Amino acid sequence: MKIAFVGKGGSGKTTLSSLFIRHLAARGTRVVAVDADINQHLGAALGLSEEESAALPAMGAHLPLIKDYLRGANPRITSAETMIKTTPPGEGSRLLRLGEDNPVYTACARNVPLDGGPVRLMATGPFTESDLGVACYHSKTGAVELFLNHLVDGREEFVVVDMTAGSDSFASGMFTRFDMTFLVAEPTRKGISVYRQYKEYARDFGVPLKVVGNKVHSDDDLEFLHEAVGDDLLVAVGHSEWVRAMEKGRGRPFAELEGSNSRALETLYETADAVYPQRDWERYMRQMVHFHLRNAESWGNTRTGVDLAAQVDPSFVLREEAAPQPV
Fold first, then answer.
1. Are 159 and 34 in contact, with CB atoms under 8 Å apart?
2. Which of 38, 82, 91, 302 is most deeply buried (CB count within 10 A of its CB)?
3. How far apart are CA 46 and CA 119, in angstroms?
4. Which residues belong to any copy of the CobQ/CobB/MinD/ParA nucleotide binding domain (predicted)?
5. Among positive and negative, which fits the CA dihedral 289, 290, 295, 300?
6. Domain spans of the chain?
7. What contacts 31, CB < 8 A, 6 or more positions away?
8. Could you tell me whether strands 117-123 and 109-114 are parallel, antiparallel, or unpaired per DSSP bridges?
9. How many CA within 13 A on the CB side of residue 277?
């Protein structure tokens, strides 16, 4: 299952995504965590020191390696240089699985020990001074989009992505890559503004969306969220002494998380798992191709000098029972 956590800056989406990752790890579920935010804080939220977080390899810096590995023996992709962030897989492409070892994980992932077992953590990499004036952050998140496009994941396998704040993910088709999107919203007008944007954009693409109320301290806060988002409100999370201790560097066993918050995380898991039977790989591929063709026409063909529409393999559908990897 592919899960996104979105919300405005400061909403607490990184905290909530890290708690969900911990909850999955405690269940013994296989997890790959991806920090796709321009402000890279997921590693710290999972308990890494500042030095360990800073040492995480940047997916954006390994984009040539990622492209070259994923294109495999696909005859429709003539070189790694002609791949863009939306390039879909086809016959001969190398696909990714959560539990395997491969050059992409070797270069871009690091194991983070958590209660219940380690999870793989990947990060786009921060926006650096050298990027100013010559690059946009979407060039870095393109590595994440390619990763998701080529990923074969099944039940009890989770990729959890801490997305960039606001509605920036709509700059590409990445918002359609997820089985479930959890939007973290505070009980304020600003807090629900991103929800309204997401709801509008996602409506035409059948993107499942649920709201997680955060920093909910009173019945009035809860009523405000109910009035604003209606049935999309899934759970509400209040103050957590466990989280506060973690933010102070005084980590405690995850089993000591407050019962109400543990139940909220289990609700997130159950909600995500419930959409598994509704997975439609053919629609997933159609949406992937749709955004690839749009990007190809708007800038990709000019950038690469080739007709990127030719990369689309009309007979290929990504599925859980995908063929073995090419050597």
1. yes
2. 82
3. 10
4. 7-226
5. positive
6. 2-311
7. 21, 24, 25, 98, 119, 120, 158, 159, 160
8. antiparallel
9. 3
> What pLDDT digit, counting tens, does each position of 82-94 carry?
999 999 999 999 9
The pair of structure tokens assigned to 133 is: 């004036």
116: left (phi > 0), else alpha (psi -120 to 50), else beta?
left
Q: Report the C-alpha dihedral over residues 271, 277, 278, 283, rounded to 10 degrees.
A: 130
Give mean pLDDT, residues 265-293: 95
Give φ, ψ of 234 to 5 degrees.
-95, -55
CA distance 134 to 131: 6
Nearest Cα neighbor of 9 from 32, 38, 31, 34 is 38
Residue 10: per-residue pLDDT: 79
Tens digits of residue pLDDT in 108-153: 999 999 998 999 999 997 655 555 444 444 556 889 999 999 999 9
Residue 199 binned pLDDT confidence (cut-offs 50, 70, 90): confident
Indicate the residue type of 228. Answer: A
96-110, 144-158, 236-250, 263-277: least confident range: 236-250
Residues in the chain: 327
Quote the tokens at residue 169: 């993910």
The answer to whether residues 190 and 8 touch, using CB atoms and an 8 Å cutoff, is yes
> Which amino acid would we find at residue 220?
D
The partner residues of 118 in beta bridges, in order of sequence, read 113
Q: What is the DSSP string of 112-160?
A: EEETTEEEEEEE-----GGGTTT--THHHHHHHHHHHHTEE--TTEEEE
Q: What pLDDT was estimated at residue 132?
A: 43
With a threshold of 0.70, does the pTM exceed it? yes
Rounded distance between C-alpha atoms, residue 28 and residue 47, angstroms: 18
